[in-house]
Amino acid sequence: MDLTILLTILGIIATIAAPSAGYILKLRKEYRNYYSVIWKSSKKLKARELLGERPFEEYYYTRSIDNQIQRSLERRRNIIIVGPPLSGKTRSFYNALKQLKTPVHLLVPRSVPVQNFQFPKDFIFWKPQMIFIDDLQYYIERQDSFYLLFREAKERGIPIVATCHSGREYKKVRNKMVEQNLDLDIIFGDDIIEMEKISADEGRLVSEKLGMKWDTVKFNGTIGSIFMRLSEMERRFDNCDNIEKTILRSLRNLYKSGIYEENSIFRLEWIKKAAGLFELEGRDFEWTGWIKNLEDKEFVKIARRNKVWAEDAYLEFVVKPEVELQQTDIFESMTEVFTDNAEVLQMLGERAYDIGIVDTQIGNYMKIAIDAFEKVLILIDKDKQHNEYIKAESYLGQSYWSLSKVQDTLVNCAKSIEYFNEILKTISIETHPVEYARIKNRIGNTYTAFAEVESREENCLIAINAYNEALKVFSKRAYPQEYARAHNNLGGAYLILAEVKDRTANYKKAISSFEEALMVEIIKESPKLYALTKNNIANTYARLSEIEDAESNLKRSIEAYNDVLALQSKEKAPLQYGLTKNNIGNAYSMLAVIKDKKQNLDKAISAFEEALEVRKPEQVPIQYANTMFNLGDAFLVKSELENNAEPLYRAIDAFEESIKIRTENKYPIQFAECKFGLGKAYLSLAGYEDKTENYHKAIASFDDALKIFTEEKFPENYNLLQEDISKAKKIFF
Hints:
63% helix; 3-stranded antiparallel sheet; Arc Repressor Mutant, subunit A; single chain; 6-stranded mixed sheet; globular
């Protein structure tokens, strides 16, 4: 080729490429707002870009779990690596990444709040890509728009690798993703990898390789406890002066309360405020010196202007509080300290809410969240900070609704609806369609909860109207998950309505709504929602069987329950499995009344016994007690059917076991049901043996039941009891 022509071609290429290169560089700068690493080759990736400021040792201890991570990466599968702090989640991924035969280009999102993630579309599109999300719980907690990135990555087929703290944080991630119609088990499938603890012998081996004396290591079963020098840092903490200890304890309280930016970065102003709880005050130059001293001792790093990075492992394991406080006490103290800071109060409220929905102390956490969010509303300008105001109102509505599940249902449901209605004064279906629909769906849920305790018909009708409003936006095509969930909720409202009005018609409307939900291919995306909806269908057919087509409807009910069981193994979903088995037992008990009595009764007993394999009294006491009652009832019928005393002993044992939990004080109605069943069992046993003794036991049980089942409050139960008492007297006398 002529040199002149070649130079001309190169010039043209350069002319075209120069603007393109400039554009890409501009994009890279812009994307720094959203990502800490932007499509960087795994071969060129530095440890610090993933591990942050943590110490990095060249030596790596290979474990069996590494092979699993390696295989999943090679197959380009979504992976989530779960384990406690210092278990080596991030380092294991980094090591596996560097071993890949075919390098990938990595995208690492930042966890800082941003308006909306922008997905890089304009470069590196011809090379394999991967997204890494370290400490998923922080993203879920902080980043509303993060879910958009998740969905887009899924649509593009770009594998996602994430790490997550085990325990409560992992439960929180699961729940938060469900709220966004994302199912963690579907996204990550079988590639949910749990980091195993290493043995003390393995720990000694690693310490030798690192040239560390084993007696200086504070080993807790994690690889990081060797690398992080916890013992040394504990010694340094003990040698800190009172001011330094106070600052570290203040950082710990901020960390525990969720008051931080990405990667445990804290604003100096927050640290000063939190230190005020310990009555620590100082001038700017003094604070500069104190923070510098802590940096020299390797507890913190000055990250950026007026911002401090602190190692969360030290805040978790090394920094000892002066007085050990409950998590709720820390929240309450921080709420008081930051009473004038809306941003911090919003963080704190969200953290309390997130913990509350997965914690047994849900009531305490929701009260803290409510206090924080109500203070936010006082502090911010409704007109100037409209989005922030609505966000706080929405959280308040959800917090009051969550609180209503454990106490003061009527009062808290009313408060929940009040806040949701306040939001609807500022948004409409025309201006904010999606937000409007979500609020309407939540209003429907709240009125459904209302209907469980008061004005059933009125509240159900309001709930039904709210769900139908939501469905004007949540179409099957545009919002399939929301559409399915709203129809499932709608069916639930019709199910409750059927108890007070037009039973047959409303049961059929409920079934129609549930089946409409199943028309969406939700099993692929949300098996839990599918199982819930199928379970609701089964329950409705069982109730419909009491009115019409008993046999066919009960068979439909059992068939639907069995579909649910296909998704609920005893090992992976024991509580759900137990619930479904209990319901199957009830359906077979009902079927036994009309067909193949002995066969169906045996199936019922078998189902109840299988339910009890996972419904343990120490874990789910009331569920255990309910199934025990059902089992007792089934054995009572079995005795009558076989004309045999043996099942009566089983029935009595089951009723007595149930009463241990279904006590008169806590569960008066259920207590009376057990006493009624126990009386019938003793009355039947009197026909076989110890006539006088068993007669008196039967009468005593009936009398206990009559304390609750009075003629005024429970006329039907009262009349049935009187019939059995009359029968007992005839037998005895």
